[in-house]
Amino acid sequence: MKHNLLFLTMLIIFAGCSKEPQVLFTDMPKTHLVKSDFSELPNWEDENYLIALNSFINNCASSKTKKIYKELCKDATQTSDPKNFLVNEFTPYKIATQSIEENGLLTGYYEPQLKGSLTRNGPYIYPIYETPNDMFVVDLGKQYPELKNYRLRGRIQGNKIVPYYERADAGNKAIDANIICYTDSKVDLFFLEVQGSGRVALENGETIFIGYSNQNGYKYQSIGKYLVSIKEIPLEEISLQSIREWFKENPSRVDEVLNYNKSMVFFRQKDKAATGSLGIELTPQRSIAVDRSYIPLGSMLYLNADIQNQNVSRLVVAQDTGGAIKGSVRADMFCGYGEEAREIAGKLKAPLKLWILLPKNMQSEIN
Fold it and tell me: d(Cα 203, Cα 115) in Å, to the nearest integer?
């Protein structure tokens, strides 16, 4: 949270009305912000202000949001005019790359639904693991402040500390972990790991929700990039759909491709649908994942991008993060769950413009 407070302080002190990026952070990766106005937001007059305001109010259940917006979280529940409240209480700042004219990137993610069983039987042979009992996590930042964002994961082998099992090893080793359930597809399980949370329709008719708990310590490697690099799928055709189709056509090579990504995710059972890093249930089309090195979690933002051949502009909230989400003008939109959401998320890759909305009265508070 110290970084988030620095983010806000530096913003108010240095942001001006110039149309060139003015804000550079010294203690964070360089972020460029340009003071803007609601009249400059694309399609602002077409926004559903009530839905946007309710999304903000829901976001205020997080302590991170309350620290950014303070009294506005309470005031939002008492307004009778959502549009005027947003315009009168917030100032938009455009988030830019090195040049304000450059666009970022918007992708999509969804909540997968898998088929499963509480017992290993029939086609249900692929375990969904909780965090292993034999894996430990060392917080290096406690001893080395310069490594505060790093965690070392490993296991004990004899009298040595060694890396935890990578994906290729997991199928051949006895992982000491509780099993939530079994599923019938290692490909579906892999994409569940990529998405971070999902639901499993059990053979007994029940549905359980599961979400990210931990991972084995290896850096995520994109299998899409791998398939492009070995010339199996052209770069311009790579998508969730094309990758899944390739797996169907090449069943003997599934392990080769999946094991390229040594990272492996472990889960926990939850009592509700997909939640992001804030712990708040995600809202389709209104929740996004960001790189919190640049954008504080809990922030309200305005995005503009082309989705399914339509120009979409709307207020969204930064409620999640992701290993593949890197950069200031970079977002991953939550598209919901099920087949339709998967189709939208799998094909979503669009140029992005992004603004962050901050309280107007913050300047007087700091000064």
Answer: 7
DSSP codes of every residue in 215-276: E-SPPP--HHHHHHHTTSS-GGG-SHHHHHHHHHH-GGGHHHHHTTS---EEEEEESSS-B-
pLDDT bin (cut points 50, 70, 90) of residue 143 is confident
* Backbone torsions φ then ψ of 107, nearest 5 degrees: -120, 180
Look at 8 and 299; give whichever has higher pLDDT.
Answer: 299
What is the overall mean pLDDT for the chain? 86
One-letter-per-residue 3-state SS of 203-226: CCCCEEEEEEEEECCCCCCCHHHH
pTM equals 0.72
Contact 209, 273 (CB under 8 A): yes
pLDDT of 363 higher than 90? no
One domain, residues 59 and 43: yes
Calpha distance 276→290 (Å, rounded): 11
Domain check: are 14 and 93 in the same one? Answer: yes
Owning domain of residue 98: 2-109+277-366
